[in-house]
Amino acid sequence: MREEIIALLRCPLCHGPLAREGSALMCSHRHCFDVARQGHVNFVPAKRDTFYTKNLFESRAAVFAAGVFAPVIQAISDALERQGVRDGAVLVDAGCGEGYYTKSVCSERRLKRIGFDLAKEAIRLAARGPHEAAFFVGDLANIPLTDRCADVLLDVFTPANYDEFARVLKPDGILVKLWPRAGYLRELRGAARGKLRHDSYDDSRVADYLRAHATALEHSAITYSVPVDAPLAAHLARMTPMLAGIDVDMLDLTDVREITIDMNLFVGRIGARMEEERT
Q: For residue 45, what pLDDT is reported?
């Protein structure tokens, strides 16, 4: 982990600065967090994974490798270019999973990329292979980053903690949030009809909560369909929380020949930050 990244971290226990000591990060109160061989750090060692398992994230990685979400990466990157994000900016990916968005957004830019997730298996996968990003296991309610350090905070399908987002974003920092629209993975919803708690999806609660905390610079829909074969359809079924609690191996996916991606892309600023700028 590079020193410029360590300088942005804070101890999750006492909120003091961290420094490298051998193969660990330590604060002045001697709270110690080991740096794994792959370079990632677990700031929540007592957390146990449940639904978000290694198999789920491996399926996500297979879907991403197939290019299913490549247009989403392009849409986010284009939006950040329009907002003037430049080399050297700090991008924080909240709920980064296996690191696809962390590594891929604005790939031509030399950003300081930081991803965190509460799922240990996700961070282990994210840290694999050559990359310039830093990854850690971290809690959305207690992000181990210093105040006002991030130029961009990326939230893709992750429950938002706007108080913490506001704390870590710079006064002119940008929030990028994505969440599903009604058509998202509708083919899988059809295959699981009768087994789901709700046969349709309503995003109004997410949208209302966002509008109560943030001011939009841009807000658009990303909607498209991609062809899928049987193995890719199965990976999509395994990766989505929409099918949590369902034995996806028992679903009949033979009629799933394409998948619809339908999501909201919001680019804006946390409302509290806007108020501060006006005062």
A: 82
User: What domains can you pick out in the chain, each with its CATH number?
Assistant: 40-278 (3.40.50.150)
**Strands 258-270 vs 169-180: parallel, antiparallel or unpaired:** antiparallel
For the entire predicted model, the pTM comes to 0.92
Intervals of the chain under pLDDT 70:
47-51, 198-199, 272-279
Place of tokens 């961070």: 123
Q: What is the DSSP-derived secondary structure letter of residue 132?
A: S
Nearest to 101 by CA among 244, 275, 263, 277: 263
pLDDT at residue 129, rounded to an integer: 81
Q: For residue 5, how many other CB atoms are within 10 A of its CB?
A: 18
User: CA-to-CA distance for 74 and 71, rounded, in angstroms?
Assistant: 5
CA distances for 171 relative to 8, 16, 110, 130, 179, angstroms = 16, 21, 22, 32, 24
